[in-house]
Amino acid sequence: MFYLSELLRAAVYDSSGKKVGRVSEVAASTTEKPPRICFLLLKDGQSADVRSIPWAEVGEIDRGQIRLRISEDRLGSGRPDESFLLLRNDLLDQQIIDVNGRKVVRVNDLLLEKRSSEQGSDLLLSAVDIGLGGALRRLLQGTVPHRWLRRLEGRVKQTIIPWNFVDLIEEDPHRRVKLHISHQMLGQLHPADIADIMEELSAKERSSILSALDDATVAEILPEICPRLRKSILDAVGLERASDIIEEMEPDDAADVLAELPEATTEDLLEDMDEEEAAEIEELLEFSEDSAGGRMTTDYVALPHTADVESARLLLRDARDAGELPEQFNTVFLVDESGLLMGSVSLVRLLVADPQDILDDLKSGPLISIEEEATETDVIEMFDKYNLLSLAVVDDQMHLTGVVTVDDVVSILHRK
Question: pTM score, two decimals?
Fold first, then answer.
């Protein structure tokens, strides 16, 4: 096991024992997990030229000295291309994401592990040191005896994160290869966790992450981001992509986000969107934000109250296969041919009913709904009184116009 700080500035000697320079950088391949060290980069202190040594040509490493298997005349020159990870330049003192801890941390040192392989031995990037021990090691490396330094490190708490639990924050959007590799794990986190992480980052770092995530993932993250950052994020991705992201969002979330933007920006985004989806969101924007209409979504499941269970299941299966089922789906609402609300059936009851049963005979009673202009307080009271997971919203003629779901109520209560 080695720390990067122990390799940097280490004296390097060729196979004849001649000193050829000191380690200035360590390059690793990002196409392997964990990253494998491929080159050591050297400077001799007398020129600005950089020479490279393949890891396979490194022999012994002992007490800050490195012995090579080759002579000086076989050393290469130049730096590896940008697809390689330069551990000193790209990682030390940089912020990275602790995927397991769901937070942003700063790199104080890196732990490198030597493992046997068919070619002899590999040196792998094993973990990240984010603790005081790593900071002390770098500060005192080369100024105190090695054994003293190890003894001092032992007195402070070690904070190590395995490499498979970290994710790079790459500020340069042109390094597409590295971005694709580095943000695969980040995309597997819950959108709320990614939102928390992004709020800790600079604008450039957020832009880097946004360029590596697809529109659907960003659409899930955006409602979780604090309102003051949403506009800057949409501005950063540009009008065309911002419209695509808004289209991916749940209608109520999209309306909430657009309601916070300047009117001119909202109009530009809606104009660039699919006409049908834009119309749906515009309808929601007409309601006051703190009303039932302003909190409802138009993404719900409504079926004819005269349909049988077998037909209902087939319709739901088709909607599932087409990706058209709402994210929060626990209730089937029943309507007549004019859209008048007739009742509701829980998804669980629909699953266990006989195929020939009629939906109208399965509905829960009494009929529970709320008018579009009702206040947030009225909505909360209805959910509390009837222990609801979803609540139908109707117009003044009892036509179903939307649904408020329990996650919206939780958001209201959290804000209050």
Answer: 0.70
